[in-house]
Design a protein that fits this description.
Helix content is 56%, strand content 7%. The protein is mainly alpha-helical and 149 residues long. The protein has one domain. It has a 3-stranded antiparallel β-sheet with strand order 1-3-2. The protein starts with 10 loop residues before the first helix and ends in a 27-residue tail after the last helix.
């Protein structure tokens, strides 16, 4: 077997090899076009997402606007779909704007709340919620124990 010579390449094999090489070049070109198109799609999706976030933040502030410009904790909870105790906790922890005191009554300015919601939707604001870690246990398992801060 050591004395056998390799068979000479025939013209048919050369033609097939050339066709395979051309196909590989075409596939590489198509892959480049797909990568370019994907990049453009990602950029467009990012622009659409940012526009949607802006619209959501604007629509929350415009569509849920109450009749009064100062809201109680209960009203803030209704607007933001939070319980009253969560409103107080988030205000204390910095997740919501601080309320104002007027003649012994505590109220939140509507514009402060709308601005805070807009910052959260646009991802430009600091929020206490960004540092919140998920609870390891459900609320019913923690009964009788206070959370450590």
């Amino acid at each position: 077997m050591a004395g056998k010579k390799p068979l000479p390449a025939t013209s048919a094999l050369k033609a097939e090899l050339a066709a395979v090489a051309d196909a590989a070049v075409a596939v590489n070109a198509a892959m480049l076009q797909v990568r370019t198109a994907l990049g453009e799609l990602k950029e467009a999706a990012g622009r659409i997402s940012m526009a949607a976030d802006r619209m959501a933040a604007t629509s929350v502030a415009e569509t849920v606007r109450p009749q009064r410009l100062l809201l109680t904790a209960t009203e803030v909870g209704e607007v933001l779909a939070l319980s009253e105790s969560t409103v107080w906790r988030r205000a204390r922890d910095g997740g919501l704007p601080k309320p104002v005191k007027l003649a012994g009554a505590t109220r939140w300015r509507w514009q402060d709340l709308a601005d805070a919601v807009a910052r959260l939707h646009l991802g430009t604001g600091d929020s206490a919620d960004e540092d919140v870690q998920p609870e390891e246990e459900c609320p019913s398992c923690r009964r009788g124990r206070r959370r450590r801060t």
